[in-house]
Structures are given as structure tokens and as C-alpha cells.
């Protein structure tokens, strides 16, 4: 057997799967996006950029991007809370492991289960309404998932509940990999907690913040599970991915759906690229 | 990475100045208040649904969500979730898919990493780049076109569809193996080559056993992801007999829509295994999630 062939034998399986399930779909998606294919006919017609024009000119197709903004906003709340709890728990705290476990656990829970947990939570006269009544806040009670003015806040809140633990554990890992001597030196210089956070922790976690920014953008654009399970996209909670799925599999417009998917992919790649340009890989912590 | 080995004690070097101590105390109180509040917000939605799962239908309708169930060991809703809700079959399907996909991911990922890390061949850079670039493509965006590939392979509505997709779209595990393999010294390979072992023996007998910690990480990260995956089985296995835990639980919505106590039992059945595994393997989870997210 020629020596040069051996690595390819190991790569045969992995590369076949990679091409079949990543590169073939991406390529065919670009192709479908310039056709009017309905998912059934053998030979779709070429329509040029018509599908792309439709996305950016039909306002109801564009509205889903507004929904993304709720989740995008929520992800900053999420990052801030995660950073706060990671910082607090990296100092000496009682029951640190218990708190850490509780805050992280939701990230591991099945998405459908989370959907039902919060359908129950937001139900009229359900958990939230009962809690509000106990605290004397009946006044703000509303149809948490039925009122178009409230539904996206409710769903984005569920998203924070679910994903906070991921950001938190990533921050905690980054903070704990900062050498302990830095804190000792800071102690000797009389630095307080805030100064330790500002001058030791914050520079140490810059790369993680960059990663989280990408996760926030791509995450808020590709929100799917929570709204699909909880509202099915009703009452103004439809997201970009729900719309794409419905366009393809309910309305059989694979051409338009592919164009939407290409737009989403382009945005995610652009943001990743921008982030890499703007926040260069750390050259040793400053 | 245990939280008990935390930062050096802060008070050691500090002169006992009163206002500062008071400030610290107030700070500590705020810290604990915030932690307890966050824990309550995390736990209350889960605890109330666990309580609902133990109530009878009449109890559920008559009482508020915070009232305790009359019998703390009422199994009726769980029995119904397992029988009428098909959760037993769902666990069987999930187990089969999970076992094959995870084993496949470990083999695929470690073979790819072995070829890329231990061989110098033409196009090596291209191959590596192809895997890295694929990691940037969010899977959910390409489903419209992936659907056609799955149909073309003739595996639509069979367990082969999710198994192939789970094995074929996992770049993160290749990263994890690649990083870990860099720390395995090349001397071992060379010594084995001198003794006449071929590359496949080296991979199977030397590299794979040494990858154990990385394999554990991949098994945990991938295992949780597959156990929780909703979209892929939902899209590619519409048949009810092929329901996995996510899709079977999702189908509770119609038939049990007036019976929240049964839906609650289904939710508890799905969450409980996750909780048990998490409590047993906490440290592995934290390390695995960190390794999986930071490439």
C-alpha cells in the first residue's frame, strides 16, 4: 500500500459525512435560492434574484428580524448576569458548588420539557399570576403568551433562563484560569473587589466575551425551539427559522426558503468575520 | 476545576478598618441575596411542575400551583405518561439512536483527528480548513437543503436519518480530539512502528485508549445534545413509532391538553435522567461544556 494513501483511509468516513451533510446542502441551498422550486417538480425554473428581492421587500417577511431583536437584547442581560454570578462565585462563597450547579442545570434540560415548564408557568392563573397576586402585582397580569405586546418578552425571558448557565460556566472557566498570583499581588497592593474585577478579571475574559457576542448574534437569529414549542410562532412571536421552515415544509416554497437560509448564513458568517477582525486573538493577556 | 479551590482568602492581608468591614458585610449580604434569588428563579418553575405531576386531575383543577399534592407518591400520572404517552418506546428509541450516534461520533472524530494530527500529506491544510469552515455553518440554516440529501439517501423516516446527521455534522468533537491528541507524545507511535505495528494498530491500540478523557468529554457533550435534540427527529422521523423522548413529549400537547398533571409527569420523566447524570458527573459536564464551546 502506498504510504501517501493511509491518511485518506482514515479520512474517508469523516470527509464523506462532512461533504454529504454540510457542503452538499450549502451548495444546493445556493442553487435552490435562485429557483422557484416547490420541492416536488424535477426541473425547477431559474428566477434570478427574485426570491432575495421578495425577502427584503415584503414587510411581513422582514418582520421576523424585529423579533430577533428581543432575543438579542435579552442576550445582553444574560451575559451581564452570567458575568456577575461567575465573578461572585469565583471569590470565596459558601455553597459555591450548589449555586453553580443550580445556575448551570437549565442548560442541560430538554427543550421540549422547558417549553412545557414555561407554558405551565405563564398559563392564565398559573404560576406567574399566582406569584404576582401574592406579591400584590395583579395589576400587571396579562396573557403572557397571548398578548402580542408581551409574548416576545416572555419567550426571551425563557431563553435567558435556559442559556444563562452556559455563559456562566464559560465565564467561570475563564476566570479560574487566571493565575492566582495576580490576585495575591493585587491584595498586597490593597486593591478592592471592584478593582480586582476591573484590572484582573475583565482583561482575562476578553476572548470569552468575543465568543459570546457571536453566540448572541447567531443565537438570536436562529431562535427556534422555544417559540416553536410554546406558541408555534403565533401572536407575533414568529422567528426567522420558524418562518423559513414553514415556507419550505408548509407552503412548499423551497426556492424562497433557501434564499432565507442563505441570508441567515451570510449574516452569521459576516458577524463572525467582523468579530475576528475587531477583536484580534489575544496576544497574551495585556 | 472545582470551585472550592477558589481565590486566596481576601481578609488575610487586610488591616481591620471598620468602615471597610461594614462595606464588605453589606457586599456579602447582597451577594447571597442575589445568589438565593437566582436559584429560586431557576428552581421554582421546575418544582411547581414536579408538584403538579403528583396531583390527581380533580386536585389539579381545584388547587393553586403552590398547594402541595395530597399524596407525595401518587404514580398515576407517570403510569399514564409511560403507557398512553408512549414514553417507554420513546426511551427505547432514544437509547438506540444515542448509543449508535455517540459511538460513531467517537470513531469518526478520532479518526479524522488522527489523520490530521499524525500525518503530513498533500491537501492536509485544505482538509483541516474544510472542517474548520463547516463549524461556522449553523446546522439549522441548511435543513431546507439537508432534507433533500436525506430523502435522496432513502433514509427519511428511519432511525438512520438522525444517526447519520448526528455523526456527520459534529465538528466540535473533532476539535476536542485534535486538541487532546496534540498532547500525546509522538514517541509512542514511533516505538510501536519500530516494533512493526501498522498505522491502524497504532490508532486502535495506542491512540484510542489514550484518548479516554477526550472520549468521556465527547460522550457527555454529544450525549446530552442528542438526548435533548428536538428538531432533527421531528423533521426526519414523523412516524409515531419512531418517536424519541423530545418528539413524544411534544405530542403530549394534543391528547393531554386538558390534563396538565399528565404533561407534568412527562416533563418530570424527561428531566429526571438528566438530573441524575448531572449530579453523578458534574465535573465532567463543566469541563466538557467549556471544551466544546471554546474551540
Task: Give a quick rundown of the structure.
Chain A is mainly alpha-helical and 286 residues long. Chain A is built from 13 helices and no strands.
Keywords:
heterodimer, A: 286 residues, MetI-like fold, 13 helices, 70% helix, B: 295 residues, mainly alpha, 2 domains, 15 helices
Structure write-up:
- The complex is a heterodimer of chains A (286) and B (295).
- Chain A has one domain (59-278): MetI-like fold (Orthogonal Bundle).
- Chain A is built from 13 helices and no strands.
- Chain A has helices spanning 6-32, 50-57, 59-90, 96-104, 111-122, 127-134, 151-176, 180-188, 193-204, 206-221, 225-230, 240-250, 254-278.
- Residues 282-286 of chain A have low confidence and may be disordered.
- Chain B is mainly α.
- Chain B is 69% helix and 0% strand.
- In chain B, helix 3 (76-83) crosses helix 14 (260-280) and helix 11 (212-228) packs across helix 15 (282-293).
- Mean pLDDT of chain B is 87; it is low at 1-16.
- The interface between A and B is large, with 94 and 99 residues.
- CATH superfamily name of the largest domain in chain B? MetI-like
Low-confidence stretches of chain A: 282-286
Q: Count the strands of chain A? A: 0
| Low-confidence regions of chain B | 1-16
Radius of gyration of chain A: 24 Å
CATH architecture of the largest domain in chain B: Orthogonal Bundle
Choose one word for the global shape of chain A.
globular
Distance between the termini of chain A: 51 Å
Mean of pLDDT of chain A? 88
Structural class of chain B: mainly alpha
CATH classification class of chain A? Mainly Alpha
CATH topology of the largest domain in chain B: MetI-like fold
List SSEs of chain A in N-to-C order.
HHHHHHHHHHHHH
Q: What is the secondary structure topology, with strand pairs?
A:
The complex is a heterodimer of chains A (286) and B (295).
Chain A: H1 6-32, H2 50-57, H3 59-90, H4 96-104, H5 111-122, H6 127-134, H7 151-176, H8 180-188, H9 193-204, H10 206-221, H11 225-230, H12 240-250, H13 254-278
Helix pairs in contact in A: 1-13, 2-13, 3-7, 3-10, 10-13, 12-13
Chain B: H1 18-52, H2 57-62, H3 76-83, H4 87-118, H5 124-134, H6 143-152, H7 160-168, H8 172-182, H9 186-194, H10 199-210, H11 212-228, H12 231-236, H13 245-250, H14 260-280, H15 282-293
Helix pairs in contact in B: 1-14, 3-14, 4-7, 4-8, 4-11, 8-11, 9-10, 11-15
Amino acid at each position: 500500500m502506498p504510504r501517501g494513501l493511509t491518511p485518506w483511509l482514515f479520512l474517508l468516513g469523516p470527509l464523506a459525512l462532512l461533504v454529504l451533510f454540510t457542503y452538499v446542502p450549502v451548495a444546493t441551498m445556493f442553487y435552490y435560492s435562485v429557483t422557484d422550486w416547490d420541492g416536488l417538480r424535477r426541473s425547477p425554473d431559474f428566477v434570478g434574484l427574485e426570491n432575495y428581492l421578495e425577502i427584503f421587500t415584503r414587510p411581513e417577511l422582514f418582520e421576523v428580524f424585529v423579533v430577533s431583536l428581543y432575543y438579542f437584547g435579552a442576550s445582553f442581560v444574560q451575559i451581564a448576569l452570567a458575568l456577575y454570578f461567575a465573578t461572585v462565585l469565583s471569590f470565596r462563597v459558601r455553597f459555591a458548588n450548589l449555586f453553580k450547579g443550580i445556575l448551570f442545570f437549565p442548560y442541560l434540560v430538554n427543550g421540549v420539557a422547558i417549553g412545557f415548564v414555561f407554558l405551565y408557568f405563564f398559563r392564565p392563573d398559573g404560576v406567574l399570576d399566582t406569584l404576582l397576586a401574592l406579591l400584590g402585582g395583579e395589576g400587571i397580569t396579562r396573557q403572557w403568551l397571548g398578548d402580542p405586546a408581551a409574548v416576545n418578552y416572555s419567550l426571551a425571558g425563557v431563553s435567558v433562563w435556559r442559556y444563562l448557565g452556559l455563559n456562566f460556566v464559560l465565564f467561570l472557566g475563564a476566570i479560574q484560569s487566571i493565575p492566582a498570583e495576580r490576585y495575591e499581588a493585587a491584595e498586597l497592593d490593597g486593591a478592592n473587589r471592584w478593582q480586582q474585577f476591573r484590572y484582573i478579571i475583565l482583561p482575562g475574559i476578553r476572548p470569552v466575551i468575543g465568543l459570546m457576542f457571536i453566540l448572541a448574534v447567531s443565537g438570536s437569529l436562529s431562535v427556534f425551539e422555544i417559540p416553536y414549542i410554546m406558541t408555534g410562532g403565533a401572536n407575533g412571536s414568529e422567528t426567522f427559522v420558524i418562518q423559513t421552515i414553514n415556507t419550505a415544509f408548509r407552503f412548499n416554497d423551497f426556492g424562497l426558503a433557501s434564499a432565507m437560509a442563505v441570508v441567515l448564513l451570510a449574516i452569521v458568517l459576516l458577524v463572525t468575520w467582523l468579530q475576528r477582525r475587531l477583536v484580534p486573538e489575544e496576544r497574551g493577556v495585556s | 476545576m472545582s470551585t472550592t479551590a477558589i481565590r486566596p482568602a481576601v481578609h488575610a492581608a487586610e488591616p481591620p478598618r471598620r468602615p471597610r468591614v461594614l462595606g464588605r458585610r453589606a457586599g456579602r449580604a447582597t451577594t447571597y441575596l442575589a445568589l438565593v434569588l437566582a436559584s429560586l428563579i431557576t428552581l421554582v418553575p421546575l418544582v411547581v411542575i414536579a408538584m403538579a405531576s403528583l396531583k390527581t386531575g380533580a386536585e389539579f383543577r381545584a388547587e393553586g400551583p403552590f398547594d402541595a399534592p395530597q399524596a407525595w407518591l401518587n404514580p398515576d400520572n407517570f403510569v399514564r405518561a409511560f403507557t398512553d404517552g408512549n414514553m417507554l418506546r420513546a426511551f427505547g428509541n432514544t437509547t438506540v439512536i444515542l448509543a449508535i450516534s455517540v459511538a460513531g461520533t467517537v470513531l469518526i472524530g478520532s479518526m479524522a483527528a488522527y489523520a490530521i494530527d499524525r500525518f503530513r500529506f498533500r491537501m492536509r491544510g485544505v482538509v483541516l480548513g474544510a472542517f474548520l469552515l463547516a463549524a461556522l455553518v449553523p446546522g439549522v440554516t441548511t435543513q431546507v437543503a439537508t432534507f433533500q440529501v436525506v430523502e435522496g439517501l432513502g433514509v427519511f423516516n428511519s432511525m438512520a436519518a438522525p444517526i447519520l446527521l448526528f455523526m456527520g455534522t459534529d465538528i466540535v468533537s473533532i476539535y476536542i480530539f485534535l486538541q487532546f491528541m496534540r498532547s500525546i507524545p509522538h514517541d509512542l507511535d514511533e516505538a510501536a512502528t519500530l516494533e512493526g505495528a501498522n498505522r491502524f494498530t497504532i490508532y486502535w491500540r495506542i491512540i484510542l485508549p489514550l484518548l479516554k478523557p477526550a472520549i468521556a468529554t465527547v460522550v457527555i457533550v454529544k450525549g446530552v445534545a442528542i438526548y435533548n435534540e428536538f428538531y432533527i427527529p421531528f423533521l426526519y422521523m414523523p412516524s409515531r413509532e419512531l418517536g424519541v423522548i423530545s418528539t413524544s413529549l411534544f405530542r403530549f400537547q394534543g391528547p393531554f391538553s386538558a390534563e396538565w398533571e399528565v404533561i407534568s409527569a412527562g416533563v418530570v420523566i424527561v428531566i429526571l435522567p438528566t438530573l441524575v447524570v448531572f449530579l453523578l458527573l458534574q465535573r465532567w459536564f463543566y469541563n466538557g461544556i467549556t471544551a466544546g464551546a471554546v474551540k
